[in-house]
Amino acid sequence: MKANFLASPPLVVAYAIAGSMNVDITTEPLGTGSNGQPVYLKDIWPTNHEIAEIVRTHVTPEMFKRRYSDVFKGDENWQAIAIEGGETYGWNSSSTYVQNPPYFEDMDMTPKPVTDINGARVLALFLDSITTDHISPAGSFKPSTPAGQYLQEHQVAPRDFNSYGARRGNHEVMMRGTFANIRIKNQMLPGVEGGFTKGPDGSQMPIYDAAMAYQGQGTPLVIFAGKEYGTGSSRDWAAKGTNLLGVKAVIAQSFERIHRSNLVGMGVIPLQFKDGESWQTLGLDGTETIDIVGVEGLAPRAIVPVKITRADGTSFIIETRCRIDTANELDYYKNGGILHYVLRSLVAA
User: Fold this and answer.
1) Per-residue confidence (pLDDT) for residue 1, from 0 to 100
2) Per-residue pLDDT tens over the stretch 313-348
3) Residue 113 per-residue DSSP state
């Protein structure tokens, strides 16, 4: 029978007596008794009193003690797992599922002053309604992707890749998956789908590879987008991955509420175009150099000038609205993100 049923033990017994699942046991007899009379479900179904009496007689405290006293001991396979004791977690450098993220590297108790963002390059130009799944997909990926290549370099066969969502404890995988949705469209490369952009040399390459090349040059990055940037589920890796790629600001026509907050929490400035303005109306193509000034004196919802220099050397300044909306969010940003803010607060306490 190509079907599965979930039933209580008495009901299983009743159907076993009937000998078929094609019997309406609520109206048809299960069989015939020794007296030659039909026997119905109501005749054999235990009463609540009978059930309570059996439980009282047979379910004892000793039964639970015997069954669960060593529940955390585990079987021989569990006991054979090698562990190391200590006050902090012992990171396994060979794990492809869990790695120590770099958020707190070179962190001091006193945050470094925030500074203007100078000489940034454009990582992507996006249209409206870029979702968190576009930014940080949770599904499977191919061997040819940066994430797939990373896992193969660490002796993981494609059949064992699993998914981005399953490997969200490994920033190396998740960084490579950021903006890697196969349906995302970076308008710097018209007609191209997937996580691609132009690298420092102007050639087409995966967004991750381009971001790492820019990081190697010490070049900050910005993203331009349209309306409703970051819609969808409040996926934390959409902001984490953006940060780890070296993106310092996202300039969009509007933001989804939670993703805007998550960007601030990861030290990325969300800036909003003035009404009626967009990267399209400005005629941007992604070859521009971006300077964001006034960051040192940043205030919630302040006007932030952005200088845009085209490839031919001409430049102009636009005014954007800082979407760091509250004083608390500004504290998070000045600390390098909410993780740093919380850790410094805990240590100080």
Assistant:
1) 52
2) 999 999 999 999 999 999 999 999 999 999 999 999
3) P
Count Cα atoms within 13 angstroms, Cβ side, for 315: 11
Q: Is 148 helix (H, G, I), strand (E, B) or coil?
A: helix
DSSP secondary structure, 294-320, as one string: --TT--TT-EEEEEEE-TTS-EEEEEE
Cα–Cα distance for residue pair 231/130, rounded to 1 Å: 7
- Cα separation, 298 vs 187, in Å, equals 30
Strand 221-224, strand 117-125: pairing: parallel
* Residues pairing with 322 in the sheet: 271
Running along the chain, 349 residues long, what does each successive block of 10 average in pLDDT?
77 91 91 93 91 92 88 88 84 94 93 96 98 97 98 97 97 98 97 97 98 98 98 94 98 98 98 98 98 94 98 98 98 96 93
Distance separating alpha carbons of residues 323 and 110, to the nearest angstrom:
25
Q: Please state the separation of Cα 41 from the chain's center in Å.
A: 51
What 3-state class would DSSP assign to 53? helix
Residue range 205-225, pLDDT digits in tens = 999 999 999 999 999 999 999
The Cα–Cα gap between 315 and 119 comes to 13
Decide if 194 contacts 182 (C-beta within 8 A): yes
Residue 149 near residue 142 (C-beta atoms within 8 A): no
Alpha-carbon gap, residue 339 to 332, rounded angstroms = 8
Concatenated DSSP letters of 217-266: TT--EEEE--SSBTBSS--HHHHHHHHHTTEEEEEES-B-HHHHHHHHHT
For the chain, percent of residues with pLDDT exceeding 90: 83
Cα(171)–Cα(100) distance, integer angstroms: 8
> Domains in the chain, ordered, with CATH?
9-68 (no CATH), 108-136+178-348 (3.20.19.10)
Six-digit token string for 289 = 């150099």
pLDDT, residue 75, reads: 86
Closest CA to 148 of 133, 160, 132: 160
